[in-house]
Amino acid sequence: MNEGTVLDVTGNIDNDKYYPARGRVVLHIDMNAFYCSVHEAEEPEKYRNRPTAVAGSVELRKGIIVTCSYAARKRGISTGMTVAQGLKKCPELILIKPDFHLYRKYSRAFMDIAYEYTPLLQAVSIDECYLDITGSKQFGTPLDIAHEIQARVADELGLPCSIGIAPNKLLAKMASDMKKPRGITVLRIRDVPALLWDKPCGELFGIGRKTAEKLKRLRIYTIGQLAAADERLLNEKFGVAGSWMKRAANGIDDSPVREERDKNKSIGHTTTLPRDVTQTEEVQRVLLNLADQVTRRLRRQNLVAQTVQITIRTPDMKTITRSQSLDTVIERAEDVYREACELYRRHWNEGRPIRLLGITLQNLVAKEESAVQLDLFNYEQQPKKESLTKTMDLLRDKFGENAVLTAGMLTDDPSALIRNHKIRGTSLQTDFLREPKEP
């Protein structure tokens, strides 16, 4: 247990004293070096205690390292490096191709373990989640529950994780970062001055680099100075976020843990390209593959979408998102592809290099609850199109994603990597948790 831990477990003490009559107990579970840890769990004899890195394109030295093992980090490897930079620092670095099907399998598995201790589980990404265990005292103290979850994830899945215990989500997240890997840390509001106030503002969860720089220009350098700052000044410079920052710096966060295993706000898919693309034709092929994949997942959950968003990231890691809400809901790849191409045409200048592309569908509703508006000129063809789509989905479910391809997908351009590697992009969202489990 970390220095600064305030829960003292001695003997068989009544659990009631560890659960506040008013207030909450929140856990934040953060899987350690998740992708690399999954590969190590699958093939321990090949990867255990060795410097490994998962890279978007292991064949090309310009590929970006997505994550790396702790053994690799000790040798100077870090996320965001190019493959070439990583190999220069650590020639023995083992590069691994991403396998997002495998990552989703393990993600679902560790969250299933956590879900046994409370129904209030909020998945925020593929490798982390919040638990509200205020009503879980039958399982023991908060530390008992954290230790048990950590041990089960290690024993049953072979994965390491760090867990933060706190009265709110903000401090639970901060606590889980304090000791990695395999740490368990308790952080209460009364610990904040001693443990957080001397740290730079940029280390407060929710404050990015640009905001931290702006705070420095106001002579606010540490979390403690932010906690003591004039709220009117903060609101003047940052709007309503100013009040939030002051409260957060004092360890205050009222946001609830929202149980989302049965809900879905968006479905997205992105792909980091093996080389920068500049031509519209290349971009369109990538968008076609992404539209196909994201609508496949949409249909698996019997959902339809009313908003299409594209994500574009440049080689210098600048990211833009642009979205368009529609008059009617959609579910077919051709409709999503059309809207994505239109967003690209309106908001991007051809010739500027692109490193990553993504499509996200938002404003999702259950298909049976939506009034699907048929095109007045094509209503007779609509049932045929739906029947064809269902047939294609069934063929892919049985024979694999490459069983049915459209003409635009038969190419050796960068987007082909999405299919050929059986990755077809990166899904870091959590909608797969609502899909039926595979046998």
Short description:
The chain is of the alpha+beta class and 439 residues long. It is built from 16 helices and twelve strands. The strands form three sheets. Strands 5-6-1-7-8 form a five-stranded mixed sheet. A four-stranded antiparallel sheet has the order 9-12-10-11, covered by helices on one side. Strands 3-2-4 form a three-stranded mixed sheet.
Cα(first) to Cα(last) distance is: 39 Å
In total, how many beta strands? 12
Q: Identify low-pLDDT runs.
A: 1-13, 371-385, 398-428
Radius of gyration: 24 Å
Largest sheet: number of strands, sense, barrel closure = 5 strands, mixed
Question: Which oligomeric form is depicted?
Answer: single chain
Note the total helix count: 16
Strand order in the sheet with the most strands: 5-6-1-7-8
User: Helices and strands: which structural class?
Assistant: alpha+beta
Envelope shape: globular
